[in-house]
């Protein structure tokens, strides 16, 4: 039987143990990459106008805003003798996500595609938040940066592979064109493969990873019984939101502008690049669908580079303690340059260089903020804090979806759709500068132990 492990004596884990506990993120990222890279293509195929695309995406961030704090709260209070604390949510999310991902490209009307996106994002969120908390649950503080970087490495593999799936299906002879208003078979096949990868990769983590039980299981169960009920849960989530630690607010500003930029990418990369660089606007034409496949290929580049950059970070963080704030600033400035350079690209092959810089930012966004947060908040509330931290991811996406993108890029840069990439670059530059306001040593310095935090934990 697994013995309770206190937060102060957690054993260091090997690379492969950390790999196993994070492997399910491969499937989660297959879901997110297919959703992020190709839902706008599906919306356009089903008749959506370019300016309407952001509002059609609003289902995704709204779902995350509601689901993640609730899942975080519930997973903090869960203990199953076989599945543990976080893994029950992995399993539920895996089943629902794989079903939703498989059926999303079979939408025959725009409202069906929007509904499919809503269900898909809610389902993925059920699994995703506990994966963040699991790294903090299992690893000592000295391995937090390393753990989140390994997770990012797996995410990079998933982003690259999933983004290239429709292109690969086309190379294998699957048609990438269809009648007007019909999703091409290459996209349908890609989503089907993604659904399989999503389910089995999460199942792999469930089967290969054990969790530490609460340090005092009897007290844990007693406290859970005394605080049951929807009203208490709502009150607890609300209380933690209004009293969140200062470091969470500081990191939240960085996250706000980071995710605003990437929501622009997911919403507008396909229409902006197919129109500006490939001069293709007819969604039923071979020219447009070939261009859209290539955009997916370039999106895969940022996933591939994020994987390679995460490998470098994994080596560095396994050997030395780093200044997380400085590393994150560097990554975000690289992404700002990458987005801005898309505007001046003439030869589409050069987009690989632009998206390579975006990939460095993506690797940093998926690792450094979570490493900083997990080292600066109490461990026993890690799930709910990770869920609440997601607010700083979804709120900028909601603002972007209800008009923030359309108004801002047109006001600052002009009507051309490619100007959305300039806005994304500006947003990442602001995020980079906002790092200067992060003041917690526990967040900034890898391996720093805050004595007051230890007492709370």
TrEMBL record:
State the coiled-coil residue ranges.
Answer: none
The GO cellular component terms are: membrane
Under PROSITE patterns, the record lists: MFS
Gene Ontology MF terms? transmembrane transporter activity
The answer to keyword Membrane applying to this record is: yes
Please provide the record's keywords in A-Z order.
Membrane, Transmembrane, Transmembrane helix, Transport
Subcellular location per UniProt equals: Membrane
Task: Spell out the protein name for this chain.
Answer: Major facilitator superfamily protein
